[in-house]
Fold this protein.
Amino acid sequence: MASAGVMIASLAACGGDEEGNGGGGASASGEPWILGTTETVTSLDPAGSYDFGSWNLQQNIYEQLLVIPGGETEPVGDAAESCEYTDPQTVECTLREGLTFSNGNELTSSDVQFSMERNLAIADPNGSSVLLGQLKDPKADALAEGAIETPDDQTVVFHLNAPDTTFLQLLTTATTSIVDEETFPADQLLGDADVVGSGPYKLSQWKPGEQAVLEANENYEGERAAKAPQVFVQYYSDPVPLKQAIQNGDVDIAWRTLSPTDLNDLEGADGVNVVKGEGSEFRYWVFQFANKTVQDKAVRQAVAQVIDRETIAQDAYDGTVEPSYSIVPPGFAGQKNSFEEKYGQPDPEAAKQLLDDAGVKTPVNLTLGYTPTRYGPNLVDEANELAEQLKASGLFNVKIEDAEWEEYQNLYKEGAYDLFALGWYPDILDADNYLTPFLRDGGFYANNYSSDEVNNLLDEELAETDEAAREEIIGELQDIVAEDVPLVPSWNGQNVAVARDGVQGVEETLDPTYIFRFWEISKE
Amino acid sequence: MSARSGSLPRYVVQRLLLVIPTIWLIVTMVFILLRVAPGDPVSAAVGGKLDEAALDARRAALGLDRPLIVQYLEYLGDVATLNFGQTISDNRQLIDIVVENGGATLTLTLGAFIFALLVGIPLGLVAGRYRDSAGDVVIRIFGVVTYAAPVFFVGLLMQLWVASPLGWPTSDIASPITKFEVEPVTHILLLDAVIGGNWDAAWDVFQHHVLPCVTLGLLLCGVFIRLVRVNVLQTLKGDYVEAARARGIAEKHVIRRHAFRNALVPVVTVVGLMVALTLSGAVLTERTFNWPGLGTQLYQYLIARDYAAVQGLVTFFAVVVVLVSLLIDIVNALIDPRVRY
């Protein structure tokens, strides 16, 4: 990524592997393999989904302009040869020559414009058109006038509503998948079984909630050449049968989501390997500023001073997660462990000093909230562990309450809890995706935290094209979070899969993007 | 036509007319219960990602911000015109769900019924015939346990203790390859495999059916055992049985031709009542075995708070239960001359 206002993602950065796999057409000569997952699919039309299960298939069926190769964080060319900022509000992409969809139709810049335009126009309630806000007409569900130009078949120019240094990352997401304008309707979703893309795989069978079968796309000529001729995706309603399926060899890979207990059971089991990669899942505890108890900063800081993340990771999650010391997970540009720098090791004495200095009477009554029906079975253990730690400090009287997810969402916004647990997966691999949604005017979780300083810094980091300067602002924001404590980071998750012996390429695809790159996987 | 012979058609017409308020009551209850429960399809899908304004915009796009009475009347209109529309969470036509996933539920429940009949009735007959013997006690305990044990628990035990040692499939209706190969004609996979002449696929599908059908069948089995046993005990005390004995008919003939046959008549009535039990058991069985039937779909759509899907599927289940009950009543009247309406 270059400074001085020009950031570039180009095809040259991505060149296939050393064996020559990648580029120049598909050579899918391996064995078919089967993926088992508990994810669900909302829609295979990119305009109709905003969930892991759908996006995962779409990443394999469609091309996006850019793609993030396994294990890397920066986008490189996919359908585009290159994309670059010509100014902070303008991105120009040049498409590869000779792109075609799996049905043989030509893929041109017009298809790219059509894809974004219909996504915004449909604005499906299950969709992710909200991510295309930089191209949206502020007054309507439509593409802004002149937001996309296509001067020729190979060139697409994006004019953004505001400076946004994360736009190249956005062009890697499934919501920007390129669809065939001759196949997809402009104003409604296409049926799942009929979708057509230009990615390394094409859909050959679709049984909703049951099974997807993908076959290597013989028209695909890009860098993501399929290694297996056929991939089966089996959908499971529950982790229990998924665990049995991988143990029995009914599936070759189990990915998302087995519990930490299941994963520990499978470690060392015959014929299977638990493969762990870096993740970007973020678990955190949010303070509700509407509640008087936690309006005093000293109370929030005291909680941050007491929490023992190592113990939570070990005791509640069997060591399958990493303690988190910042609102931004490790691996992102500008990340720093601000909470560790400010609070050091868990220290009840230091916490007591904070409260005493602020004149806060102890013990402080605190209500902790969590939901047992959204973030896996171990959150209850985490909540209990945190409550015990706070109680053991002698500084807090803690009451734990829980609610089913649907009710929980209302309760935490209404102030039923002083401190409540939430989880997050990023839409794009950029530190801002952990900052703007959380910190601007109370965040999406409506915790009533608001800071003009933070809002201004968020605007600045989004507009800043100088990488070093932007990282500095991001660091500053993390320090403010550690000081103001609108939330307490708890842990960062890993990207974990279980693979049978003989399956290769899984480790390479397990990274913070959570894209499961079918094209990388082969089976002996 | 005599008054007696004309009573059945009149009864059928009455029952058919009663179907309408029954269905109305059910769809109304489902509509209200879904709205009373916290959450909605939007918060279930993206509640942890978007702010309240964005969530409200999506609710408005789905029409969920309109007054409940408007939504209710619109829904009643759709039901009246048999227009169940499409699901909110994944844009599937309700009719497609019933067609594509109904076959799996049908074969599961039929298989369970067959198992229950084949096992439950003979055991009930034996228990009734040899009342208070050791065999009777064992069979009664077996019947109580299978009826009382939760389906999902029995299913897990089956998977761990039976499937794993024998190498039988523990989940799903078929292997991925079979599902890929078999051309859907009737959407009943076993039947489609047979129609296609793919015997390997048919065997694969049959193997996958064994554990789920046995698990659900055990639940029904307990009911049959208890029912048949009691009926055998009653018929053995009947005057006609005594009369047969008095006429010097051999005891084995008395038991087979008089006691057992008459003891089985009430089973037909109970089969109708058990359709609802079977369908509720099927939901749990399907979830345990990752079975791609309507029960699994219903569960998933409940989690997604998909109003349209849940309302449509529950209505379908209600119609099935009501119609099967009606059918059983008619059959019962036809086979048992004593039954009058």
